[in-house]
Amino acid sequence: MHEGSVNDMLPVVNFASRDAADAGNYWGPRVIPDYQLFYVASGEARLTVGEEEHRIDPGQFAYFGYDHPHRLQVVRPTEYFSIHFLWNGPSSTPVHPAYGIREVDEAMLRRAGGLHRVECPGFGSVELPHRLSAVGVEPILTRIVKEYRQEQPGYPAMLRAHMTELLMELLRSRMEGGAASRRGRIDVALRAMREQPAKPWTVAELASLCGYHPSYFTLLFSREMGRKPKHFLIHERIKQAKQALLRGEAIDSIAERLGYGSIHYFSNNFKKETGLSPSEFRQRPDRGSDG
């Protein structure tokens, strides 16, 4: 299942707690009306989804959604965080999931739903397995639980902000791990375009650097990066142009250094990608956020 793009993500926290459970405690088999992240701070839990069983150790999450019949069981005395959420919601106000949780039989438990994917423009699609790891997320989880419990003014908006931070940490951890290792197959081409953005790279040249046939290279590149090599090169040029504009570099110098034949062509390309001319971008009050 595709959860959309991180650029459009508006997560909603429906429930958040930090609690403890003794060995033998379990939830399910059941389905839930939203998504859940179950983080083991200490102890051990086990998640059953379909025909798979996942051991959840300290520092790891169990992750599943409404389309995943599951059983979650505590193996050893465990301290945990539990977050119920939606990836996108028109309102940031929590809606407790309790009334939407439904018990199912063992036969339905074995009907596993597909894995979820999230699009990260410029970096490709990230797959989310049922067991996730991330370093240093306990402070974020603690802030989410505190906001949920205290309900101070504006707490739904704060919950949305903290949940966005948590999800991005998980997605970046996936990109730096498994996704990054897969991307290693096209890493030579990525590095070439980043280091020499002015060069008019052809697909054949880039494919040759990686040892692939051009058509297979284009397919592989598009699957991993979410865009074709030509569009990635344009994106990289504009990204470097933004940084140069913020440093105060002259527009004509930027255009020449990035391989544009004229300022006019560079300006048109820049505006097509960003919606602003180079001069308008440089003058924006919030331009520092593009660094």
From TrEMBL:
One short Pfam name that applies is: AraC_binding
Q: Which InterPro entries match?
A: AraC-bd, AraC_XylS_family_regulators, Homeodomain-like_sf, HTH_AraC, HTH_AraC-typ_CS, RmlC-like_jellyroll, RmlC_Cupin_sf, Tscrpt_reg_AraC-type_HTH
Keywords in alphabetical order: DNA-binding, Transcription, Transcription regulation
Extract the GO molecular function terms from the UniProt entry. DNA-binding transcription factor activity; sequence-specific DNA binding
Leader sequence range is none
The answer to whether the entry has keyword Membrane is no
What are the HTH araC/xylS-type domain coordinates in residue numbering? Answer: 187-284
Q: Does the keyword Cell division apply?
A: no
Name of the protein this chain belongs to: AraC family transcriptional regulator
Naturally occurring in which organism (per UniProt): Paenibacillus antri
